[in-house]
Amino acid sequence: MVNNQYVNFWKENEIMYLKDKYPKNNKKEIAIFLKRSEKSVQVKSHRLGLKKSKEYMNNIRINISKMMKINNPMKVEEIKKKSGRTRKQNFNKKNKRIYEKSIKKIPEKVEQIIIGSLLGDARLQRKGEGNACFREEHSLKQKNYLLWKMEILSKFFGKFKIYYRGKRKNFFKTKCYDISEQIIITSKFHPIFTFFYEELYPSKSKKVICESVLNKLKPLGLAVWYMDDGSKINGNKYVICVCDKQNKELIKIKLKKIFNLNCSIHKDTIYFPNSETEKFTKLIKPYIHQDLNYKLIKMKEIKTCPICNSKRISYTENSVRCKKCGWIWSDKEEVKIVNFKKL
Question: Which domains does the chain show, CATH number per domain?
């Protein structure tokens, strides 16, 4: 069944009139003359590829500026001189004010976890000129560690979203790598994340480690950074990966100044010598998560036999055998003698 509806097709003389008048006149006036709706005039002009002339657009801008002068007693130029900032600069200053107020309320533990994570695997995302959000992903082996972070941060920033990503393949330099299952967390948008985003992402694409963030680094932040991107080599050296290859010397200077740690940086990794392993372990050991204790180096300690009082160098969490009396004793994390076994 055919719908008998009236269709008002465009005639040749109407199209000629539209082409002639549209660049310099208002579409409302054209619609009244042609006895059509403004929408039909707009659609037809778009299909024909018609555009407004420069003279017409300049006249509109002049009229808008005149209206602003009438409504505002101050001139537009005076307003610009008084403010001295663009809209984007005003927005950034507003965020800094909010950050200064909220940073006083934020606990030190939360701030250090944010700093350590951003130096490690975490990243910040921002759309347009709005606030930024926090995002981090790890393999399922480190699920408990990531959820521990989420529990602490969610008390201040609200609920986080959790995503799971399955196995996939990644191609890098003509080689194929299998990536295991991953867990991802994302936070809500917050001005504190925006403040860190403006400092760490000056180009809005690549992360750059700055001096102001490194100055706030403390042992908890260093431990989180190590848990994210650190590892041990040959059981006696610590290594941390660096996301920024440009500011190597700055990182080296700040680690020496804040923690009195000597290190060398090659390509994108920080190497701590054997002489610094004991100092580094004492700094980070109280803050290491249970699931990541395997990243710690077992330190040597001098222990005494409970039977003959002879001394011997041994590692923690291992059993020790006395050569004189032949007794074996084992210890736990607190290095206390627990039980005895005779050969």
Answer: 12-68 (no CATH), 92-208 (3.10.28), 219-295 (3.10.28.10), 300-342 (2.20.28)
